[in-house]
Amino acid sequence: MIHLQRRANPSKLMGYLAPVIALAMTLLAGFLLFALLGVPVGEAFRAYFIDPISDSYGLAELGVKAAPLIMIAAALSLGFRAGVWNIGAEGQLILGGICGGAVALYFYEVESAFVLPLMCLAGVIGGMAWAAIPALLRTTVNANEILTSLMLTYVASLLLSFLVHGPMRDPDGFNFPESRLFHDAATLPLVLPGTRLHIGAPIAIFIALAAWILLSRTLLGFALRVNGNAPRAARHTGFSQAKLVWFSLLFTGAVAGLAGLFEVAGPIGQLNPVISPGYGFTAIIVAFLGRLHPIGVIFAGLIMALSYLGGETAQITLNMPLAVTGVFQGMLLFFLLAADVLIHYRVVFGRERHYVR
Amino acid sequence: MPEVSLFTSTRRALLAMAASAALALPGVGMSADSPLKVGFVYVGPVGDHGWTYRHDIGRLAIEEKFGDKVETTFVESVPEGADAERVIRKLASSGHGLIFTTSFGYMNPTVKVAKQFPDVKFEHATGYKRGDNVSTYSSRFYEGRTILGTMAGMMTKSNTIGYIASFPIPEVVRGINAFTIAMRKVNPDATVKVIWVNTWYDPGKEADAAKTLIDQGVDIITQHTDSPAALQVAEERGVLGFGQASDMSSFAPNAQLTAIVDDWDPYYIERTQAVIDGTWESTDTWKGINSGMVAMSDYGPKVPDDVKAAADLIREGIVEGTLHPFAGPIKNQAGEVVVAEGEVLDDGVLLGMDYYVEGVQGTLPK
Amino acid sequence: MSDDPSTFVLIALTVITAATPLVFAAMGELVTERSGVLNLGVEGMMLAGAVSSFLCVHLTGNAPLSLLVGTAAGIVMALLFGFLTLSLQASQVATGLALTIFGTGLSALVGQSLIGVAYEGLPKLSVPVLSDIPTLGPLLFQHDVLVYGSWLLVPAVAYFLNRTRGGLVLRAVGDSHDAAHALGYRVIRVRYLATLFGGACSGLAGAYLSMAYAPMWVENMSAGRGWIALALVVFAVWQPGWVLFGAYLFGGITILQLHGQGIGINVPSQLMSMLPYITTIVVLVLISLDQGRVRRNAPAAIGQAFHPTT
């Protein structure tokens, strides 16, 4: 029989090797999947992993797609480490977009340098305000944040729908559900001219790094880590449980709100009924794929973003329906998540031995 | 379409023209041996059995018509946010000479990408922004709703019709109004009850809305959402209904009176032909029943002969241009005349329609 | 139906069909979570159940067999989840989300040939004599088999969890796997069984969608109901009876807001559509005021991986 045996210490080597093994397994399973569906295997892999990033525009798009995932996932991983289950980052993102976008529309006639910073501030505040509701309910009446944050996501998306179908729609837009296009002063500066890579991408990396420092070098970070494992012990760090809940939710809310603002002020350039293809939810996977480590999250975000771009390319170059991408993406994630078992366990062949401790 | 019937006889000559045109347009990827690549961007999955499904049937019609002279590509479920621009651009940069973007939310990304690819032709559905290489197209589905309204007005016994609506956009409001105006012409006592479900397709919720309307006393249901769920409920509960986007009679063999069928085939074939011919120009197409873009399915078994005759008459009037669905007098909900007798609502107002006409219950959410 | 059912009965019937898939999915997830496993892949398992049962009924016309196939599809998906999270210790939260992506794609792939295929829906089984009682008859005794099933499932699960030895073991495993292990219970096996039960229920919930609620297959037809089911488990503070209440409350508010629109309440529909979500939050707050019950029922070890040699 094959069984798992716990390592005395987590394997550093496997920490790096596990994703490689997972990738190899994905290639193998993908080979079977594509062969089964009658898709040329080599071309399929090229469409998923190489074509999307074979030019500077593609690389820039990878950054555009990965930035919101990375920044939200980095923030979420702090909260998840502390045992705070905010699964409503999507709603916080939407509120950030709404508030930031409202500022852009309010100052529509104003071409001034203060507009964009003000939008960012509004986005951050919007996201924080939305996250403050679950925080308040959790810390006052102990209402579970899984439910409250999730339900508020639906409320947020209906609110956005209401606003762009009514009060915020373009007055010259034949009553179609979209706002005016933001002025140049209200759109994000580009990092790479000729592409859509905006300043949100470096900021996302900066946020991940900041989260890493916060987690590994500060007392607050220590308290967050302790709280996840032993909530009672966390008190001895000087941070109450309530403070940690508030911090986790507000921090994620702020970052998600900023990410939402970056979407509307960056690649979209206006308020639409849909401003995010579920970044807030995908970021949860990214957080765990990155092992709840802000640096790991950067790589995980890039892989996840690549798999979406690859899905588009596979449809364009191979006429492969999106459904196949879902299956392939699922497999990739399964392998990546499962391979991490090798960090803590070794696979042993033969009979299981029970240790007497 | 006349263009289509001409096509077979002159195919060879046209292809020769296309080949020479391709030499003059580097990057478009047309030549005698490389087929024209036609790309489609879909907002939903092909399997939605509604809006996107019908566009995909149009895509297949292109393949059927032109054979190996074309290659088609589609990208489905593209969110109307940041992703759209990338997908459209990818299609443009990978040798597609003609790209259809089939949802309103793709308007600004389409226009933006079109500026970067002046040699590629873009076709945006349901929008209003055009450019040298961007056309817009849409169907006057409301003409079909005029027929439905007539039939419903004649057939209702409870004098209340249920209308399941998706989102309060002009397209949907226009449909509600066209339906109501026609209904009131044949039955001034009838009214329309509207429920907004805030989704284009969620079969469960559409079924819930249908049941709610029936429980409130409607005996005919019509819808501006994608799935056949409401019709299934109508069939089960013994009331009547209309199909949307496709002929849905297999889901409701008794209940479906007729269906408005989105038929993009003629337009897609015509535009593809134009690119092959090198005659493509930026146009604003908004055509209805007489162009074939809006088709009506066969009448269901429950439609009496007099209703069929009346519906046929309306249809003929629309086709011949003698009957305009928005001809005055039209009153708004307050009973004020907004379009005087002898006048016709112009396309600009129709495009942005944001009020209900008399006969619709409730207020329009704004 | 007997005579003319009252408006109340008619509304209630609509609520019942809207709530039934939520009851199944949430009851399954409740059992899974009580064993300490958090499976966020309910949506994916529902879609697998929906497409496979519809495929089966399309091919064979055999409704009971199709319900079994839908159940089995949910179980297979749950088995995949169990293997990754229980045997290989992968993160439950992330694996559950990945399962939803996988299930959405797989169901779309399998369902490609089913677009536009009609099915008349599960037959209604009227209970003789009882179904003729005015009001109560149509309300309680004229449903399809899955509605009755959902009503039986709730007391059955409650009885199992609270009154049987198996239920005790399951709860012990969910509260402290180390203690349960020390007592000699096979933690992983219990969790596997609870996870598979959750998969079976989600599969049935999906089968209800495609065979009864709106008998058809269209891609992604669950439209987020798996997520609502997850929220309902939390809402119910992990108690079966409250799941039933929560599902009917959520379904009820959804239907009532449609009725509100129908009678012409002058509130934008998007704001009306927020009502079920906001109500759920408000009621949860009220429930949470009873801190004792929350603490008694919340599985303490939820989401935590377990390995016998740890």
Q: Layout of SSEs?
A:
The complex is a heterotrimer of chains A (357), B (366) and C (310).
Chain A: E1 2-6, H1 12-37, H2 41-50, H3 56-81, H4 89-106, H5 115-141, H6 145-165, H7 200-217, H8 219-229, H9 231-234, H10 241-268, H11 279-289, H12 294-318, H13 322-339, H14 341-344, E2 345-349
Antiparallel strand pairs in A: 1-2
Chain B: H1 2-24, E1 36-41, H2 51-66, E2 70-75, H3 82-93, E3 96-101, H4 107-116, E4 121-125, E5 134-139, H5 141-155, E6 160-165, H6 170-186, E7 191-196, H7 203-215, E8 220-223, H8 229-237, E9 240-245, E10 256-262, H9 265-277, E11 284-287, E12 294-296, H10 305-320, E13 330-331, E14 337-339, H11 347-351
Helix pairs in contact in B: 1-9, 2-9, 3-4, 5-6, 5-10, 7-8
Chain C: H1 7-34, H2 42-60, H3 63-87, H4 92-110, E1 124-126, H5 136-140, E2 142-144, H6 145-163, H7 165-175, H8 177-182, H9 187-213, H10 225-235, H11 240-262, H12 269-273, H13 275-288, H14 291-297
Antiparallel strand pairs in C: 1-2
Helix pairs in contact in C: 1-6, 1-9, 1-10, 1-11, 2-3, 2-4, 2-9, 2-10, 3-4, 3-9, 6-7, 6-11, 7-9, 10-11, 11-13
Please give the CATH architecture of the largest domain in chain B. 3-Layer(aba) Sandwich
* Annotated CATH topology of chain C: ABC transporter involved in vitamin B12 uptake, BtuC
Taken from the alpha-carbon principal axes, the silhouette of chain B is globular
Oligomer: heterotrimer
Instruction: State the share of residues found in helices of chain C, binned by percent.
Output: over 70%
Order of helices and strands of chain B: HEHEHEHEEHEHEHEHEEHEEHEEH
List keywords for this structure.
heterotrimer, B: 366 residues, alpha/beta, Rossmann fold, 2 domains, six-stranded parallel sheet, six-stranded mixed sheet, 11 helices, globular, disordered N terminus, C: 310 residues, mainly alpha, ABC transporter involved in vitamin B12 uptake, BtuC, two-stranded antiparallel ribbon, 71% helix
